[in-house]
Amino acid sequence: MKTKDRKLLVPEREKLILDLLSEKVKTLPELSESLGVSSATVRRDLISLEEQGRIHRVHGGAVRARLSKGEPIFDEKANLKMEEKNRIAELALGFIENSDTVYLDGGSTILRLAKLLSKKGNISVTVITNSLMAAAEFMESPHRLILVGGEFRAISRTIVGVLTANTINSLHIDKAFLGTIGFSLQDGISTTDPNEAYTKELIMKRSGKNILMADSSKLCLQSLATSGKLEDINTLITDSGISPNMLKELKKKKIEVIY
After folding, report:
1. How far apart are CA 176 and CA 156, in angstroms?
2. Is the pLDDT of residue 149 over 80?
3. In which band, very low, low, confident or very high, does the pLDDT at 3 lie, cut at 50, 70 and 90?
4. Average pLDDT in the 216-228 region?
């Protein structure tokens, strides 16, 4: 598809593709014919849109992405991607050094890190957390524990919302380990609850290094409330399911990726 005087620019093609995908799955030839460009051009556009979290590529075509419909309860999350989460937690533990002040977010992957850290006796750190599950792991450990006060969110077993600001804004954090429901190149971190998103944003502003721990099922997924921009993240720890294109784009933005 062309205007009278020029070819469409990439953002214009991407918008048209999203419009074409608004109702149903479209095949690569259908998109190519509708836009009047080659299949190779459409394929590059689809890769870009998928990395932005706006579409999902399927065999021979694509479908428009939908928002994450909801958040499973904590016990359900804990049983998903267990092997990947354990390995991500092991890699994250390597970032923690003696005398660090670290923040542990909510989520089942972060809980695995808490379990590992609580048993690590050769260092002494200060642990700040809004997760009651993570806090329980440190009740008999030698590490110093600080709880963030605020409103209890039952589904994630965390403390969130505006009341958390009183504690968080008085702290200096060396490294924050963050979980998420979704992560995309377009919007960064997102979650299902605005209050939880608010608390995550406060933490990232007070932390010297923000480390996102997310298995590959969270990548290219958008949830309801944005809780941190792409540039807020210093490091992503994930698994080998990360797409080569997302890996390439994150490295372009100077985000360290470990998997």
Report:
1. 18
2. yes
3. very low
4. 88
d(CA 152, CA 85): 25
Closest CA to 111 of 143, 127, 135: 135
Whether the CB-CB separation of 186 and 208 falls below 8 Å is answered with no
Burial class (CB in 10 A: 0-12, 13-18, 19+), 142: exposed
Does pLDDT of 35 surpass 60? yes
Least confident of 65-74, 182-191, 227-236, 242-251: 65-74
For the chain, the domains span: 10-64, 74-258
Cα–Cα distance measured from residue 124 to residue 144, given in angstroms and rounded to the nearest whole number: 8
Q: How many CA atoms lie within 13 A of 88 on its CB side?
A: 29
Residue 77 has pLDDT above 80, yes or no: no
Q: Half-sphere exposure (CA, 13 Å, Cβ side) for 217?
A: 9
Is there a contact between 138 and 175 (Cβ–Cβ < 8 Å)?
no
What CATH number matches the domain at 10-64, 3.40.30.10, 3.90.79.10, 1.10.238.10, 1.10.10.10? 1.10.10.10
Sheet of strand 55-58: strand arrangement: 26-27, 61-64, 55-58
How far is residue 243 from each of residues 4, 151, 180, 184, 216, measured CA to CA in Å? 37, 37, 18, 12, 8
Gap between the Cα atoms of 183 and 190, Å rounded: 6
Question: Are 235 and 96 contacting, i.e. CB atoms less than 8 angstroms apart?
Answer: no
Domain 74-258 annotated CATH 3.30.750.24:
no
User: Would strands 173-178 and 101-104 be described as parallel, antiparallel, or unpaired?
Assistant: parallel
